[in-house]
Amino acid sequence: MNAREVVLGRVRRALADVPREETPDQVPVERTYLESHRPADATELLAENLADYRALVHRATAAELPALLARLLAERGAASVLVPAGLPAGWLAAVPESVRRVPDATADTAHRLDAVDSVVTGCAVAIAETGTLVLDGGPDQGRRRITLVPDHHVCVVRVPEQVVDSVPLGLRRLSPERPMTWISGPSATSDIELDRVEGVHGPRRLDVVLLGP
């Protein structure tokens, strides 16, 4: 007996007392799983998991944010930065005028976006248990493509209000009708030898700023 026969045998035994005419929607399923494991500090867990995914995590107050964003762009050598239409005006106030501001324009092609060095956005929600940032095309996030093509993404997360414990709690805040992008660390993939390559289908570097009171 091979593994396939063992598995199918277990399925048949489990279904032995189920009437053939019964359909799945006729039997209510009790969903008693936890929506959250209730971490002691969701923000700290988010920071830990983001770092585990090789994102670079920074912390700032509102007063410190402009200088921090200017430093992150300078460290990357950014000569241009893509700016969503609804990004708060003061966030880039400390960035030198020599750094070209590129507006999020519908006419932009992937080729033109690839010429932009960095992009700065906000986010819709951040999930602590998975270290995931979710963007939904809000005014401070722009279209999906602007965070998938440039090589450097700086994402600002307002804490604690945008941080949730788990995926189920995050889904409650999101609309399925919006264009969502789920980000867990910089874009990366590995081949069969587990050689990691970053920047294959998204930014090679992800800076996350936890914006606190």
Secondary structure elements and pairings:
Elements: H1 3-14, H2 42-52, E1 56-60, H3 65-75, E2 80-83, E3 100-103, H4 110-114, E4 118-121, E5 125-127, E6 132-135, E7 152-158, E8 163-164, H5 167-172, E9 181-183, E10 188-190, E11 196-198, E12 205-211
Parallel strand pairs: 1-12, 2-3, 2-4, 4-7, 5-8, 7-12
Antiparallel strand pairs: 5-6, 6-9, 10-11
Give a quick precis of the structure.
The protein has 5 helices and 12 strands.
Sketch the topology as an H/E string, one letter per element.
HHEHEEHEEEEEHEEEE
Ends distance: 63 Å
Radius of gyration: 22 Å
Work out the count of structural domains.
1
Shape: elongated
Tell me the CATH superfamily.
NagB/RpiA/CoA transferase-like
CATH architecture: 3-Layer(aba) Sandwich
Would you report the number of β strands? Answer: 12
CATH class category label: Alpha Beta
Class inferred from helices and paired strands:
alpha/beta
Segments where pLDDT lies below 50 for 5+ residues?
Answer: none
Strand content: 15-25%
| Lateral strand order in the biggest sheet | 1-12-7-4-2-3
Reported by name, the CATH topology is Rossmann fold
Total helical segments: 5
**What is the arithmetic mean of pLDDT?**
92
**Largest sheet geometry:** 6 strands, parallel
